[in-house]
C-alpha cells in the first residue's frame, strides 16, 4: 500500500471515530491543499477504498446543512439548535401577545345600590364640597353625615346628639351655607380661596372676605383619613 492510500485510510478511521455511533460512511469529502494531511490531489480526484468508501477532493467544503445523508464532511461544524423565546416554546410558535392594559375605572362619586343605599366617595377636597352642596340643596343629610364627616367631627356630633344635631345646624344655616359653598366652589383655584396646610394630612381653605362682607362662613378644613378625604370643620 502506497503512502497516499495509507493517509486516506487514516482519514477514514478518523472520520469513523468522529462519527462514532452513526451508520458506516460511504463518502468522505476533503478540502484540496490540506498539506498537513498530505492531500494535494486535484479537485474532483476520487479514491475508492476497499470497503466501498469514496474519498473526494474538493475546493471548498459544503455547509453542514447541505450534506447528503451518507456524507461525512471533515471540518464541518453542526449549527447550534434553534429555540424560540422562551426556551421551552415550540419551534415556530410565537408566544402569546401581552394582555392589553385596561383603562382606569371611572370614579363614581355617588352610587345607588340595588337596595337603595347611597354610597358617597371623595378623593379630593372638591368632592367633599360637592357632596355637601348636594346634601344641603336637596336636604339629603343622612349619607353625608354617615360617610363624609371626619372621625373627629362625627364623634363630636355623636356626643352632642348625633345626626339630628347636624341636620339642625345645616337647616339653620342653609342659606348662608349654600352661598358660601357655591362661592368657594367657583373660586377654588382662584385668588379668592387661600390654601393653608395645617398638618401633613389636614388642609385649610380660607375664603377672602374682604370683598364679600355679607358671607357668614369663611373656613373649610379637609382631612385625609385612610386615603379618602373628609370634612373636618366649617366655620
Give an account of the 3D structure.
Residues 6-23 and 34-39 have low confidence and may be disordered. Strand 7 and strand 8 form a beta hairpin. This protein folds into two domains: 3-73, no CATH class; 110-234, Nuclear Transport Factor 2, Chain: A. The chain has helices at 3-18, 125-138, 141-147, 151-160, 163-172, 174-186; strands at 27-31, 46-48, 54-58, 71-73, 110-112, 118-120, 193-199, 202-207, 219-225, 228-234. It has six helices and ten strands; from the N terminus they run H-E-E-E-E-E-E-H-H-H-H-H-E-E-E-E. The longest helix has 16 residues, at 3-18. The strands form three sheets. It has a four-stranded mixed sheet with strand order 2-3-1-4, with helices on one face. A four-stranded antiparallel sheet has the order 7-8-9-10, with helices on both faces. By secondary structure, the protein is of the alpha+beta class. Helix 2 runs antiparallel to helix 3 and helix 2 runs antiparallel to helix 6.
Task: Identify the notable features of this structure and list them briefly.
alpha+beta, 235 residues, Nuclear Transport Factor 2, Chain: A
Q: Secondary-structure map with pairings?
A:
Elements: H1 3-18, E1 27-31, E2 46-48, E3 54-58, E4 71-73, E5 110-112, E6 118-120, H2 125-138, H3 141-147, H4 151-160, H5 163-172, H6 174-186, E7 193-199, E8 202-207, E9 219-225, E10 228-234
Parallel strand pairs: 1-3, 1-4
Antiparallel strand pairs: 2-3, 5-6, 7-8, 8-9, 9-10
Helix pairs in contact: 2-3, 2-6
Amino acid at each position: 500500500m502506497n503512502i497516499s492510500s495509507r493517509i486516506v485510510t487514516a482519514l477514514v478511521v478518523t472520520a469513523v471515530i468522529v462519527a462514532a455511533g452513526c451508520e458506516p460512511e460511504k463518502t468522505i469529502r476533503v478540502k484540496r491543499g490540506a498539506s498537513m494531511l498530505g492531500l494535494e490531489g486535484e479537485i474532483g480526484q476520487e479514491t475508492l477504498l476497499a470497503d466501498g468508501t469514496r474519498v473526494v477532493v474538493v475546493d471548498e467544503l459544503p455547509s453542514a446543512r447541505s450534506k447528503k445523508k451518507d456524507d461525512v464532511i471533515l471540518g464541518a461544524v453542526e449549527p447550534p439548535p434553534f429555540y424560540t423565546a422562551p426556551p421551552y416554546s415550540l419551534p415556530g410558535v410565537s408566544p402569546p401577545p401581552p394582555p392589553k392594559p385596561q383603562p382606569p375605572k371611572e370614579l363614581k362619586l355617588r352610587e345607588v345600590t340595588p337596595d337603595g343605599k347611597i354610597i358617597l366617595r371623595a378623593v379630593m377636597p372638591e368632592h367633599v364640597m360637592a357632596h355637601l352642596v348636594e346634601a344641603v340643596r336637596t336636604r339629603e343629610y343622612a349619607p353625608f353625615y354617615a360617610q363624609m364627616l371626619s372621625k373627629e367631627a362625627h364623634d363630636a356630633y355623636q356626643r352632642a346628639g348625633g345626626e339630628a344635631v347636624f341636620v339642625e345646624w345645616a337647616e339653620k344655616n342653609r342659606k348662608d351655607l349654600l352661598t358660601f359653598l357655591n362661592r368657594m366652589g367657583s373660586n377654588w383655584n382662584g385668588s379668592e380661596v387661600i390654601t393653608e396646610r395645617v398638618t401633613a394630612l389636614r388642609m385649610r381653605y380660607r375664603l377672602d372676605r374682604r370683598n364679600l362682607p355679607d358671607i357668614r362662613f369663611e373656613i373649610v378644613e379637609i382631612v385625609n383619613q385612610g386615603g379618602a378625604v373628609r370634612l373636618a370643620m366649617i366655620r
